[in-house]
Amino acid sequence: MKRILALFCMTWIALLPSVGMAQIDGQFVKPRTGKFILKNATVVTVTKGTLSNASVLLENGKIIGVGASLPTEGAEVIDCSGLFIYPGMIDGGTRLGLVEVSSVPETVDYSDVGNVTPNMQALTTVNPNSEAIGVTRVSGVTTVLTVPSGGLFPGTAALINLNGYTPDQMYGGFKAVAMTFPSSGRRGRFDRRSEEEIKKDGEKALKEANEIWDNAKSYLELKNSGAELSYFPEMEQLSKVISGELPLLIEVNAASDILSAIQWVEGKNIKVIFTGIAEGWRVAEQLAKAKIPVVTGPVQDLPTRASDRYDTPYANAGMLAKAGVKVALRTDEEENVRNLPFHAAFAAAYGLGKEEAWKAVTINPAEIFGVADQYGSVEVGKKANLIVSTGDPFETRSQILHVFIDGYRIPLSNRHIRLYQEFLERSPGLKAN
Amino acid sequence: MKKIFYLLLAFFGLGCNFSQAQVQKGSVLIKNATVLTVTKGNLESADVLVQNGIITQIGKNISAPNGVQSIDATGKYLMPGIIDAHSHVALDVVNEASAPITSEVRMKDVVNPFEIGIYRALAGGVTVSHAMHGSANVVGGQNATLKHRWGAKDPADIIMQDAPRTIKFALGENPTRVHGRGNGIQPRSRMGVEAVIRNGFNEALQYKKAWETFAAAKNTKGNTLTPPVYSERLQTLADILDGKVIVHCHSYRADEIYMLINVAKDFNIKKLVFQHTNEGFKVAPEIAEYTMGASVFADWWAYKMEVYYSTAFNAAILQRNGAITSINSDSAELIRHLYHEAAKTQRYGSLTDEEALAMITINPAKQLGIDDKVGSIEVGKQGDLVIFDSHPLSSYAVPQMTFVDGIKYFDIVADKDDQRQLVIATEMVEPIYLRANEEAHRCMQDVEIYLDAFDVAFLKENH
Fold first, then answer.
1. Dihedral, CA atoms, B418, B424, B430, B432, nearest 10 degrees?
2. Residue B5 in domain
3. A 221-280 → B contacts, CB under 8 A
4. Where are the alpha helices (DSSP H) in A337-413?
5. Which residue, B117, B62, B91, B75, is CA-closest to B391?
6. How far apart (Å, rounded) are the C-alpha atoms in residues A211 and A231?
7. How far out from the chain centre does Cα B32 lie?
8. pLDDT (tens digit, 9 = 90+) per residue, A203-232?
9. What residue ranges in A45-170 does DSSP mark as E strands?
10. How far apart are CA B437 and CA B174, in angstroms?
């Protein structure tokens, strides 16, 4: 932390003299782009091994060089001796930017009225200035999938980078229609439905899902045959899943529901990603056989059943990977997305292993979302999303010293850090005067 | 139905076993561990001997007395049992939300030793938890300090009988929502919260005086005074004024924290700990000077308005300002990895290993008034210990064994997966709880009936 502070203060002081206005002290440090060379680091590429004493060259938002001796002319040199470079982490499922304060409904935008609202767009709803974005990105999470939730088809999720002032600047090139698969589980202690009622509700919801699906199919057939259709935005959006234009991101968790969902998507010939998968370890073989990629998490969660071994949520990702399922991780969080590296550490410690855990927060989600040509590793030609740290970023004792998103050098500040700077040694202290 | 069953069982159990309620104590020798004593530094490849529940020897080459099991912990780390100063694990009911002051209520009456959360906490190295009343009332019920003796069937056996009394207070959004907005009575604002507390203590002073007058007159000749009406509620408040009960106050904003410090000063209350305390960092010097410190989340924020202006550096700022600081869970999930939550003070504030570990051991012990018994590895203290495979502040650390009073209650290798102590015969299908995380936080449990539909929908967000 001291190093971050020192760096911050140095930048601050360097910029001070340019201030001329009377009522404003200091100057805001902005993200800035340019040509940067990060020199002499240990580079963990994720896809091409680990390189020691290597450098990474960034220009125009891209990684244009990775290796031992790179041309430095015109580049701002950042000495990274003794430091580590990793790709920016990707959280495969969040509500980041869609909610500011959970208990204040005026600030909660991830869920709208209605059971079938696939046309609700997470991307245009994202608040680029959400405090949580600034708080998240300094942890090394540079990209997240932000997902609407609530009804059966609650909306369309979007991949966003955690820098920029408009959704277009943040957009990461992937969208998916979200589906909440009818659940046979309880939503919590307050859910006091009987077994019978839960079963009935589940069957009813699945029946409804099938009807909606058939309608969307009819809609697409009619549309393709050139029929004149009345305005029907829900069906329009769902038909994009049927035509293969957009994948379906299915939230499903209980073992029996996962099996139903595998059956449900069979023969539909659509692109599918499963997410949640809390009880995936119970049906890992079937998931592997179905070849459906999975975004699972949170890892730091409670077991779903009282009889389960205490560590099943920690071990779930590892058991899925071992069975051959392609696994990415998610926090399923809003303001706590910064904990993604720690969720990954727990998954690593309880069976996934460090290397696979890194993949699960970098290249795997990139591949699952079809953006691996741009994201998920330190490779020439990819987007300059990377982090520099004093050690393993999954360890709390490591400090993240630099964050680059889309080639922008991100100032390591946010409200949490500013409050620290203001209050560590408060003035006045205990006694005024 | 389940609750009634537990209650019946509890009464039955108490009736049968009251006279012979005996807490089991054990002996064990843990050898060749890196011992993190927390209060007396670290010892490399050292042994710790627990006899009859008490740590009797710490050092090298200790040999096991006759009949004492020896465990080789070569390459492993041994730390004191983790203490959670804010939990609702093992409680059947959390809130008695029927009045702004309910100091007569006792959590020890609703302790459920069968709750699986106890074992799950042990699997995270937690041996002691502070089972608190919820935050619906300005003055809530009296809390219970628990020792996680998993397998005990008598609620009395998991209550730490030698711990001092503590009570829950709550400021801010929760009591004003439940009582002001929900029931149309004071408090509806933070002004009302202060008034409720001051009125309560003033009434308790009168109550105390009435009893003192009665006691003084009792033995005088010709006395005709009748005793005052006994009130458990006022008596408990009087006990707080007499320093017999530690106040643990749910609080978030700096202004309300400062308010309570001033109230405490006015009524000469010294035993005061702040819970949650998200804006504690803003009044850290005052907290350090006048109270027993703050028990905080490592990094939670923004789940409600009064925690929007938080910082994950809170614990570090409090620590650096000299406040006794602990990291708590308030959650059946977080309680499973408090060692990791404590480690976050290294990301957010670069605290030392010793400072970070103290936040889940000796510091919460001080705040619960049990630091003479637990919270560090020292001769004479109770044998609550955890073995980790690597340093407990590493994100990859996995607890291996957990001991309470020298008895092993968690063993990652030997334990069977299904740890339920009680299966309800009428429960044909085991319930599946999804995203149980969201309701793992139970500060506002049992207040549904006092709130409108919107508030209930957002209950799960509230602590």
1. -90
2. no
3. 253-254, 276, 278-279
4. 340-347, 354-360, 363-368
5. B75
6. 19
7. 32
8. 898 999 999 999 999 999 999 999 988 999
9. 50-59, 62-67, 76-79, 84-87, 89-94, 141-146, 155-161
10. 20
Phi, psi (rounded to 5 degrees) for A321: -60, -40
A110 touches chain B (CB under 8 A): no
Q: State pTM to two decimals.
A: 0.93
Query: Distance between CA B364 and CA B118 in Å, rounded?
Result: 18
**Please, what is the Cα angle at B285 between B281 and B288, to 5 degrees?**
100
Q: Which positions in chain B touch A3 (Cβ < 8 Å)?
A: none
Q: Does the distance separating the beta carbons of A305 and B430 come in below 8 Å? A: yes
Interface test with B, best of A396, A399, A414 (most B CBs within 10 A): A396
For residue B431, is the peptide bond before it cis, meaning its omega torsion is within 30 degrees of 0? Answer: no
**Rounded Cα distance, B228 and B101, in Å:** 20
Handedness of CA A388, A391, A396, A401 (dihedral sign): negative
Rounded CA-CA distance A179/A156 in Å is 9
State residue A303's pLDDT score. Answer: 96
Distance between CA atoms of residues A98 and B8, nearest Å = 47
Q: Between chains, do B434 and A345 touch, taking CB under 8 Å as contact?
A: no
DSSP state of A183: -
User: What's the pLDDT at B451?
Assistant: 59
Range scoring the smallest mean pLDDT among A90-104, A185-199, B111-125 = A185-199
> Is B117 contained in some domain?
yes
Name the CATH superfamily housing domain A89-375. Metal-dependent hydrolases (3.20.20.140)
A294-296 and A272-276 beta bridge pairing:
parallel
Chain mean pLDDT for chain A: 94
Mean pLDDT of A350-377: 98
Two structure tokens written together for A39: 């020199």
* Token pair belonging to B409: 């209650």
Q: What is the pLDDT of residue B430?
A: 80
Is the complex ipTM higher than 0.90?
A: yes
The per-residue pLDDT for A384 is: 98
CB contact under 8 Å between A305 and B432, yes or no, is yes
Instruction: Quote the pLDDT of residue A3.
Output: 66
User: Could B305 and A103 be called an inter-chain contact, meaning their C-beta atoms sit closer than 8 Å?
Assistant: yes
How is B8-77 classified by DSSP, letter by letter? HHHHHHHHHHTTT-------EEEEEEEEE-SSS-EEEEEEEEEETTEEEEEESSPPPPTT-EEEE-TT-E
Phi and psi based region of residue A269 (left: phi greater than 0; alpha: psi -120 to 50; beta: remaining): left
For position B98, which CATH number holds? Answer: 3.20.20.140
| Interacting residues of B90 by C-beta distance below 8 A, sequence separation 6+ | B111, B112, B113, B115, B117, B118, B129, B131, B146, B158
Mutate to test the interface with B, among A111, A141, A302 (most CBs of B within 10 A): A302
Q: Is B280 a domain residue? A: yes
Average confidence (pLDDT) per 10 residues, chain B, 463 residues: 54 46 90 98 98 98 97 98 98 96 98 97 98 98 98 97 98 97 96 98 98 92 92 98 98 98 98 98 98 98 96 98 98 97 98 98 98 98 98 98 98 97 76 66 71 52 53
Q: Which residue has the higher pLDDT, A125 or B424?
A: A125
Q: What residues contact residue B329 under an 8 Å CB cut-off, 6+ apart?
A: B84, B86, B87, B335, B338, B341
Backbone φ and ψ of A313, nearest 5°: -65, -35
DSSP assignment of A55-78 equals EEEEETTEEEEEESS---TTSEEE
Q: What is the domain partition of chain A in residue ranges?
A: 89-375
For chain B, the domain total comes to: 1
In a domain, B224, yes or no: yes
Distance between CA atoms of residues B339 and B361, nearest Å: 10
Whole domain around residue B92: which residue ranges? 83-337+423-461
Q: Which pLDDT does position B18 carry in this prediction?
A: 43
Instruction: Please list every residue in chain B whose beta carbon sits closer than 8 Å to the beta carbon of residue A350.
Output: 398
Whether A310 sits inside 8 A of B336 (CB atoms) is: yes
How many Å separate Cα A316 from the centre of its chain? 19
